[in-house]
Amino acid sequence: MTPLLVTLFLVSSLAVAYVLVGYPLLLAGLARWRERPVERREHVAPVTVVIAVRNGERWLRRKLDSVLAQDYPADSMDVLVVSDGSTDATEQIAASYAGRRVRTMRVPFGGKPAALNAAVPQASGQLLFFTDVRQVLRPDCLRRLVAAMADPTVGVVSGDLRIARGASEEEANTGLYWRYENWIRGNLSRVDSMLGATGPVYLVRRSFYVPIPPNSLLDDVFLPLSVHLQGYRLVIEPGAVAIDEPTDLAAEFRRKVRTQAGIIQLLGTFPGLLGGRNRMRFHFVSLKIGRLLLPFLLAALLATSFGLPSPWRWLAALPQLAFWGVALLDPLVADGGMVKKLTGLPRAFAVLVWAAACAWKILFVSPRDLWVETRTAKAPSAPV
Question: Which of 68, 80, 146, 300 is the most interior residue, by most CB within 10 Å?
Fold first, then answer.
């Protein structure tokens, strides 16, 4: 055993502990003791609801009904459905709402960023409400988002995305992960700003919109960060709720690979994220960069554990081996029992860590190769 090996073990241990436990607790403390409140005030401003969709016939009627049911003045809201080269009945369904303040726009298939770029010049509202086709909005969602825009320091307001109760342990663990993510985002918002937006439900001032690169993997991070780097806040409005369908770990893995790869992509787009222009630089490094490095930190922690003298070697290595072994065995465990609850969380964690490792392939492949449709099992029906 060399001093270098011991140093690597200690550094990787501390780094893993900081990313998984230390930073979230520190953030929670900062949110409690250094909270920066948002000035909310009920008011009305013209809003254009933009729904970019490709082949969304399964959800579109339900979505439009939830948008049109918003308790927001009808004469201050219009809806623009942008069909990204849909080949199903999406455009026909949207056209059937033409008499209810809904416009339909077709663009050639080019991905969501290109669809949004084409739609925004056709928008009439001072505020742009970006929402996806799959999520159902609670009736007061838009009103609550607009109220937060009364604060002149705010440039983007995100809603609270909640996942409907899943039928399987996998879906339940995915929902648990989203609750954790919302907790992190809420604390960032209370400190100053989130590090992006909740893609299916967020509001931005139209004057701040900048064209999104067509190959962008994270339009809902690129645009908000461009606003943040101009000095404005990105905040969350917990009362503005959108309800999404549960997803399994396979779908969450594909989504997480894309989102983590998108962060790597954004580092090239916004070098200022790591510079003095970003007043949330500490949080960006601790959260976003920390998660990207976590697979390598965990690998280093396990590898260096075997270099420790006995009995420390096994005291350090065996718990890690047991954890990863349980994660590997989880697919063989029948759903519905206590054992599944014990094995499900390690597997969910392992899937997210592996997704972060796979995200680095963005350095070698086209971003379009990482775009995959999120598949869900059912419509949201259970209360959340």
Answer: 146
- 147 close to 211: Cβ distance less than 8 angstroms: no
Structure tokens at 99: 């008499």
Distance CA 329, CA 346 (A): 10
Question: Which pLDDT does position 380 carry in this prediction?
Answer: 44
Q: Would you say 35 and 190 are in contact if contact means Cβ atoms under 8 Å apart? A: yes
Structure tokens at 33: 């003791």
For residue 83, what are the domain limits? 1-384
Q: Give the span between the Cα atoms of 64 and 66, in whole angstroms.
A: 5
Which residues are within 8 A (CB) of 132 and not within 5 positions of it... i.e. 6 or more apart? Answer: 51, 52, 53, 199, 200
In 3-state terms, what secondary structure has residue 286? helix
Token pair 């995915």 in the structure block, residue:
174
> Count of CB atoms within 10 A of residue 367's CB?
18
Amino acid at 382: A
Using 70 as the pLDDT threshold, list the residues of the chain that sit under it.
1, 167, 371-384
Q: What is the pLDDT of residues 145-192, one digit of tens each?
A: 999 999 999 999 999 999 887 767 777 778 888 889 999 999 999 999
Residue whose token pair is 């309800």: 243
pTM across the whole model: 0.91
- Predicted pLDDT of residue 374: 54
Q: Return the amino acid letter for 299.
A: A
The number of beta carbons lying within 10 Å of the beta carbon of residue 16 is 18
Please check whether residue 160 is in contact with residue 238, taking contact to mean a CB–CB distance below 8 angstroms: yes
Nearest-Å Rg of the Cα atoms of the chain is 22
Encoded amino acid at 198, one letter = T
Give me the CATH number covering residue 235.
Answer: 3.90.550.10
Q: Give dist(CA 11, CA 9) in Å, integer.
A: 6
How far, in Å, CA of 123 to CA of 166, rounded?
Answer: 36
pLDDT for the residue numbered 379:
45
For residue 251, give the nearest of 200, 181, 175 by alpha carbon. Answer: 175
